[in-house]
Write a structure and sequence with these properties.
The chain is 80% helix and 0% strand. By secondary structure, it is mainly alpha-helical. It has one domain.
């Protein structure tokens, strides 16, 4: 078993589970400390993932609101143009001046 751990360290492979945890004292790292560190790494990864997910959600919401505001402005512009066009048509019908 010690050769396996040396080989894994040599090639930079990290293995989780009982296989490495059982090698405790032989390689100078107690099982309980290994398990505690493994849980700590998992917690750190989970917090990083949550932080990233929150930032992504915030950015999506910000872009959504920005696009929604743009759509509202376009709708207002279209209504204004339609109103002007309609007003001009009525003026032409009745030959009114502005």
């Amino acid at each position: 078993m010690p050769n396996t751990l040396v080989t894994l360290k040599k090639y930079g492979v990290i293995m989780m589970g009982l296989a490495l945890a059982k090698e405790r004292e032989q390689n100078g790292y107690p099982r309980k400390a290994f398990e505690a560190r493994l849980l700590q790494i998992g917690d750190t990864a989970r917090r990083a993932e949550q932080k990233l997910a929150l930032k992504i959600d915030e950015r999506i919401e910000k872009q959504y609101k920005k696009h929604e505001a743009s759509i509202v402005e376009v709708k207002k512009t279209v209504k204004t143009i339609q109103h002007r066009k309609h007003s001009n048509t009525i003026r032409k019908w009745f030959k009114l001046k502005k």
